[in-house]
Fold this protein.
Amino acid sequence: MVGANILLVDTCKTYFENAAKAFSEIGIQATLRFAKNDIEAWSMLKGDDKLLPIPKIMLIDINAEGLNGIDLINKIRLDFELKSILIFVVSDVNNSENKRAALNLNIAGYMHKPFEKGEMIDFFSTLNDYWNSIEFSS
Amino acid sequence: MIQKLVNILLVEDDEVDVMNVKRAFSKNNIKNELFVAGNGVEALDMLRTSIVPLPRIIILDINMPKMNGIEFLKNLRDDENLKNISVFVMTTSNEDSDKINAYNLNVAGYILKPLSFEKFITSVATLKNFWSLCEM
Amino acid sequence: MEESAKSCQEELSALKKEYEDFVYIVSHDIKTPMRAISNITTWIEDDLGPDAGADILNNFTLLKNRVGRLENMLNALLELSRVNRTEMELYEVNFPKMVEECIASLDNGVNVKFHVNYNLSNENCITLGKKLNKVVFNLLDNAVRFHDKEIKNVFVDVRENESDYEIKISDDGPGIAEEVRNKIFAIFYTVNSKDVLDSTGAGLTISSKIVEMVGGKIYYTPGINNGSIFQINWPKIISLKN
């Protein structure tokens, strides 16, 4: 995880800041990056603001207003260079249509979005343990 | 998704490795029903004929006779009714080509089988915790 | 003439294929039964329970330890064979950050004082980051692992030269006896018996293969108070030989 980028796509900058705090508190060695919508995310994956190394993990809030998460995942899956990214979808609302669409795009997990600090620490600790237990291609 | 007791299909040809998963599940108090297929052909058959009921996830070995894990994944992703199933690779293969192929076919994780059983119990515990975050 | 060049080429690719297949067999087909031995041992131990008797339990521990060694050796062989095939991305590395991360990931860094010194006009460089990281980590790990004193001092010195970086990792540990210095880069060689200090003896072999691949140099010199100094010259511009 050292030197790796993890891209968080969420309309709320404060949420990113809280997540980044949780990352550092847990000691996650990857760098959390932020995109406020699908367009900005795409530019960080493929466009002028391309992140290097390319993130192997993304966290996306697909039901946030003003963010077309499904469209973004779809584009990622169709792109040769990006299609292998491990995508974790978080959401705090029930939208079964989006959920089905996301699962059909082979996301790695559809999860309830944590907000409160302790809840966030638990959530990212569990995810971090999982990320550390799996292999990534080099 | 573990709460809803997802059915788990283990695709694995080695008898000891099957026993290993069963034992690690029981050590971790995982109560989900476990189905076993010895290769990709058998696994596809069990999924298509609904021997493994919904909802379901797959734990997949790579090196198997008849149809190996990567070939199985290709078939799975090409099948409209099966393509959305979450797949976790569990293998000895540390080859980069296997990892790349598996992630290109969008597995949710690629786990190396550790040598020691104690470590394997820990891997399975981590997997269980991750599953408990996920909704199906 | 052209014919023979072509057949040479064919022979070379056949050999390469054979080699890759061999590596794959080692990695998978041998590991599966090896893992079965280890697992079944644990099950029997588990099923016998704690009353099995000290001798039996001790033998189980030995058996698992030796299978563990076998696995470490296989993994080291695999890693060595993959040095110029995997983790070949060039990216920007920040020297102080990289060293700091290596130190943080040591699992044996208690009672160790790290003295780090940089002489760099630019802290960042674009290089094979994972490879550099591996070499620095291996040398730091060795410096700590084989140290014989209660309080351990480990020194890291990075200097930027015109065409390379000179990285010196030294310690005030026991050093390496003169008569075995030419063996330390050989695979599976360990200065101590593996029963005294369980290590695979592959770290320096892998490190030196990496350094050789990037066109750099690695060498050992005895340090002050008999400690060790490992010096790496890591080129700024990496030209990969095939």
User: Anything to note?
Assistant: Strands of chain C lie at 90-94, 112-119, 124-128, 152-160, 164-171, 217-222, 228-235.
